[in-house]
Design a protein that fits this description.
Helices cover 34% and strands 13% of the residues. It is globular, with a radius of gyration of 16 Å. It is α+β, with helices and mostly antiparallel strands. It has a five-stranded mixed sheet with strand order 2-1-5-3-4, covered by helices on one side. The longest helix has 18 residues. Helix 2 crosses helix 5 and helix 3 crosses helix 4. It folds into two domains: 74 residues, Beta-grasp domain (Ubiquitin-like (UB roll), Roll), CATH 3.10.20.30; 71 residues, Orthogonal Bundle (DNA polymerase, domain 1). The structure holds FE2/S2 (inorganic) cluster (FES) (2 copies). The site of one FE2/S2 (inorganic) cluster has 11 residues, from loops.
Length: 167
């Protein structure tokens, strides 16, 4: 049996350990926000987090995930108010939208580890996420906007009470 978690919920899987995580998320868990693009770790559409790091779920097997915490676009924030999601909406980043969950997950992982990303940092972190609609300029602008929000949030504001609307 493989145990891991998805969006904070414990999973106990007794099937084929070689099943790709993407299959498990979409077909078994019904978490269809994560998309299938290439199936070969080349496009980034299937990006989710494992213990906070971005991974390609099409090429990550359930056997690779024992004991790990997976987060999908559905679990990135409880209310869609992660700074990256807010910036994405404010700048109307998405066109067809197909790549965007993967873009957002990669961007969120970037800002967690690098709150002040340079253009080079953004290029390095986002280079594996392909957008056939070429929304790249808006993606870059939204990452910078979200980085500003993260910085303001951590710049000495009063402690936020648990359950507060600003959490
Ligand atoms: S579907 Fe996984 S990287 Fe393209
Ligand atoms: S918004 Fe269409 S593929 Fe990126």
């Amino acid at each position: 049996m493989i145990t891991f978690s998805v969006n904070g919920r414990e999973q106990r899987f007794e099937g084929d350990p070689d099943m790709p995580l993407l299959w498990y998320l979409r077909d078994i868990q019904g978490l269809t926000g994560t998309k299938f693009g290439c199936g070969e770790a080349l496009c980034g559409a299937c990006t989710v987090h494992a213990d906070g790091a971005p991974i390609r779920s099409c090429q990550t097997t359930l056997g690779d995930l024992a004991g790990m915490a997976v987060t999908t676009i559905e679990g990135l924030s409880p209310d869609g108010m992660h700074p990256v999601q807010v910036a994405w909406r404010e700048l109307n980043v998405a066109q067809c939208g197909y790549c965007q969950a993967g873009q957002i997950m990669s961007a969120a992982a970037l800002l967690k580890d690098t709150p002040h990303p340079t253009d080079e940092d953004i290029d390095s972190a986002m280079g594996g996420n392909i957008c056939r609609c070429a929304t790249y300029p808006r993606i870059r602008a939204a990452i910078k906007k979200a980085a500003g929000a993260v910085q303001r949030k951590t710049a000495g504001t009063a402690p936020v009470k648990a359950g507060s609307a600003t959490k």
